[in-house]
Amino acid sequence: MQALGSRRKKIYRRLTEGVMSSLYGKWNVEDVRDVIHGLDEKTGMDGASISIFMSKKLGDGSTLGSYHPSKDHKWRGFSFSLSYFDDSSFKDLAAIDVIRHEYCHYLVDALGLKDVFDDDSDHGIAWKTVCGLLNTVQRGTYSDWDFCKATEESFMNAYMSEDIRQVDIMEQINRWGTHLPSIRRRRYLEKELIKKYTKLRVFKNEDRVIHEKYGQGTVIDTLPSVNKQFLYVEFDNGVTQIVQNRKVYKLVNGKVKKPVSRASKAA
Asked: Could you tell me if 64 and 58 are in contact, meaning their C-beta atoms sit under 8 angstroms apart?
C-alpha cells in the first residue's frame, strides 16, 4: 500500500503537469485501485488487493460498475465500464462515488453484513448503512444530478477519502447496533447538539469525564442522536459503559466543569 503522502504527491503532479483531463477524466485500473487504497486506509480492509477489471461494456451498456461476490471466499472482483470511465465528460466525483458504491458491496460481502442485518437485498439496509459511513450516495441507480463538477479541492478530498472518518464497521455495529447514522446525518445531528447544549455538554473522543456512579473516565467514541449524545466511555475503574451526555460532566485540567444553562445565561 502506498503511503498517503506519496499518493497525494502523485495526484498533484498529474494535476500540475496537465496529465489529467477534467482533473482525472480517463480512468485505468491503477487509478481505481488508488481510490480503493484510500478507502482501505479508512476501513482497515483490503479491497485494493482483489481483481479490478475495466470492461468495454457492462450489462446492457447502462451499468457503470459491478462487484462480483466471493465464491467460497476464494475470489472477488470489481468491474467498471469504460463507456463511462473512459469518457472525459463523465464527472470525476461521480466516478469516485461509483467506485465507493461497489466498494460498499465488497464490504457487505467480506464482513457478512447481510446476515448481521438479516437483509438479503443488494441495495438494502446493510448496503445503505455502509454507504452512509463512507459518504456514498445511498441509492442503487446513478443520477448525474447528484454530482457537481469537481474542483481541485473536492476532487482531492474524495480521491484521498479525506471526507470520510476512520471507521471499523464491525466495531461500530457491535458498539452501537445496526442503526448507525450516515456521515451527513451525523454532521447535522452534531450541529444541532451544539445549538441545543453548551459546549461543555457536547463531547468528543479523548475528553475526560466524570460520572456519579462510575467515576472518572475517557470518551472513546460518540454517537449523536436527536436531542442527545451517547458516549462510549472507558472508566478508570475498568468498566466500559455507554452513557448519555447529560449523565456526565467534563473534566478540564482535572477539574469538573459544570455547564451553565442557557436559561441562566439569558437571565
From this structure: yes
Strand partners, 251: 208, 256
Nearest to 60 by CA among 74, 78, 81, 44: 81
Cα separation, 117 vs 70, whole angstroms? 19
Q: Which residues does residue 250 pair with via DSSP β-bridges, in sequence order? A: 209, 257
- pTM for the model stands at 0.83
Query: How many CB atoms are closer than 10 A to CB 74?
Result: 6
Task: Average the pLDDT over 238-265 and give the result.
Answer: 83
pLDDT for 230: 96
Q: What are the Cα distances from residue 133, in Å, to 65, 89, 104, 179, 256?
A: 20, 28, 10, 11, 34
Nearest in space to 52 (alpha carbons), one of 114, 89, 106:
106
Range list of β-strands (E), the chain:
51-55, 65-68, 77-81, 208-211, 215-225, 228-235, 240-244, 248-252, 255-257
User: At which residue does the C-alpha cell 471507521 appear?
Assistant: 167
